[in-house]
Amino acid sequence: MNTDEIEKYTELENQANQLIETVATENNCDPQDLKWWHISNYLENKHKIVLVPLNKNEFSTIIADNYGIYGLTLKDSRMAMICYNNECTETRQHFTVMHEIGHFLLHKNNQTYPSLMQENDYTEEDQIFEKEANNMAGMLLANKKAIQSLLNDRKPFNYLCKYFGISN
Q1: Antiparallel, parallel or unpaired: β 80-85 and 112-116
Q2: CA dihedral sign of residues 151, 153, 159, 165
Q3: Collapsed DSSP state (helix, strand, coil) of residue 12
Q4: pTM of the predicted protein model
Q5: Which residues contact 67 (CB under 8 A, 6 or more apart)?
Q6: Residue 50 parent element (H or E)
Q7: What angle do helix axes 144-152 and 157-164 make, rounded to 10 degrees?
Q8: Which residue, among 123, 124, 132, 125, has the nearest Cα to 100 in the 3D structure?
Q9: Chain centroid to CA 162
Q10: What DSSP letter does each residue of 52-71 carry, written as one string?
Q11: For residue 85, which phi and psi values (nearest 5 degrees)?
Q12: 165 SS3 class
């Protein structure tokens, strides 16, 4: 990583940690006890985000080309709608929701963020946005404090994946 990438990563980590602390306080729990749904519930309640599970056919009512779509965020000045493919594995759904939340938090000037399986059509800026949303999703799914606590308890890798609801 170069200096700019390290600075951006640190900025993303700070934003993720702020949200984690806020959600933990709101839920009256330790940050290491947070799960992905605590974060999505908080944002649904506080920021007018609606999570919408859709299958492949339902996606076609929103966008014309739905090949390989995991999720997308649609927003306007009043609310945001995060749609995710409910035909994917649960762990993929968790990542997609946190990825789209990453777009919502980080890329406020853009209106819509399709998250496609194949990134061939992404512009250079889109690729940066996707990488940022991926990093944010990872940080929100498995926060540093929780990972460290589980590692200190010598929990195996598969345990961590199950604990956080993520794929190995």
Answers
A1: unpaired
A2: negative
A3: helix
A4: 0.88
A5: 116, 117
A6: strand 49-54
A7: 140
A8: 132
A9: 17
A10: EEE-HHHHTTT-S--TTEEE
A11: -75, 110
A12: coil
- Please tell me the total number of residues recorded for the chain in this structure: 168
What whole-number distance in Å separates Cα of residue 45 and Cα of residue 37? 12
Angle of helix 124-141 relative to helix 3-26, nearest 10 degrees, comes to 40
pLDDT digits 0-9 by tens, 21-62: 999 999 999 998 999 999 999 999 998 899 999 887 787 666
**Assigned token pair, 58:** 């339902």
CA distance 60 to 85: 12
Predicted local confidence at residue 109, as pLDDT: 64
Question: What DSSP string describes 108-149?
Answer: TT--EEEEES--TT--HHHHHHHHHHHHHHHHHHS-HHHHHH
pLDDT tens digits along 120-158? 567 788 788 889 999 999 999 999 999 999 999 999 999
Closest C-alpha among 145, 146, 122 to residue 134? 122
